[in-house]
Amino acid sequence: MKGDLFSNQHMVQPASAAGMTVENAKCIRYTVDGEMHARQGAMIAYRGDLQFERKGQGVGGMLKRAVTGEGLPLMAVRGQGEAWFAHEAQNCFVVEVDPGDEFTVNGRNVLCFDSTLSYRIATVKGAGISGGGLFNSVFTGHGRLGLVCEGNPLVIPVSSQYPVYVDTDAIVGWTAGLATSLHRSQSLGSMLRGGSGEAVQLMLRGEGYVVVRPSEATPQKAQQH
């Protein structure tokens, strides 16, 4: 076969390393030799001897998912082979988590991760149910985490002197060492989204980085994720 479709730009090349790599801007390839985890429904192709199994979260985790919608439904991928993961043609990125690190991320942005990483669903401090119920997945351990994002994300440095205020619908995640709290602004409420009430942002203060996507999810779209 000939044509642009069969050029090197689109052709999958032999894997150069085990584990997680970015295949292209919209897809992550994982060379499996043992076990890894991914969001349910994210696998778009695979080859080799692989088994896919829904990963339970336990009664407590399922209850929190039902209450918050955060959830992060997962599947375990076991065996030897290669699998490709993507979600709605969103852009893909890889984060390396080292021992002692802690990365907090919105569950809708998680695509796949090494089995050496552990995660828990936690309430964002300062933003409980009364503040809209902000829950995120906190990753610790040692390994790689594959993320998806609508558009190219912004990585904004945060300091104690210069805190960052982020729309709660646009935040992707943040690094350890940042304190969070809700910030309400009546002056912005009349300008954002055509509303007349208070605008609410998540304020992050400390030393670290916050990741923001260049879009805001409507409640209906967020539920689909």
Indicate the structural class: mainly beta
N-to-C series of helices and strands: EEEHEEEEEEEEEEEHEEH
Rg over alpha carbons:
19 Å
Between the first and last Cα atoms, what is the distance in angstroms? 37 Å
Report mean pLDDT, rounded to a whole number. 80
Number of DSSP helices? 3
**Helix fraction?**
under 10%
Biggest sheet architecture: 7 strands, antiparallel
How much beta, percentage-wise?
over 45%
Number of strands: 16
Spans of at least 5 consecutive residues with low confidence? 62-69, 128-133, 219-225
Q: What does this 3D model show about the protein?
A:
The protein has 225 residues and is mostly beta strands. Helix content is 9%, strand content 51%. It contains 3 helices and 16 strands. The strands form 3 sheets. Strands 1, 2, 3, 4, 5, 7 and 10 form a 7-stranded antiparallel β-sheet that branches. The longest helix has 11 residues. The chain is globular and about 60 Å long.
Short description:
This protein has helices spanning 58-68, 186-189, 219-224, and strands at residues 19-24, 27-39, 43-55, 74-85, 91-97, 103-105, 110-114, 117-123, 135-141, 143-149, 154-158, 164-167, 171-175, 178-185, 199-206, 208-212. With 225 residues, it is mainly beta.
Task: Set out the fold topology.
Layout: E1 19-24, E2 27-39, E3 43-55, H1 58-68, E4 74-85, E5 91-97, E6 103-105, E7 110-114, E8 117-123, E9 135-141, E10 143-149, E11 154-158, E12 164-167, E13 171-175, E14 178-185, H2 186-189, E15 199-206, E16 208-212, H3 219-224
Antiparallel strand pairs: 1-2, 2-4, 2-7, 3-4, 5-10, 6-9, 6-13, 7-10, 8-9, 11-16, 12-15, 13-16, 14-15
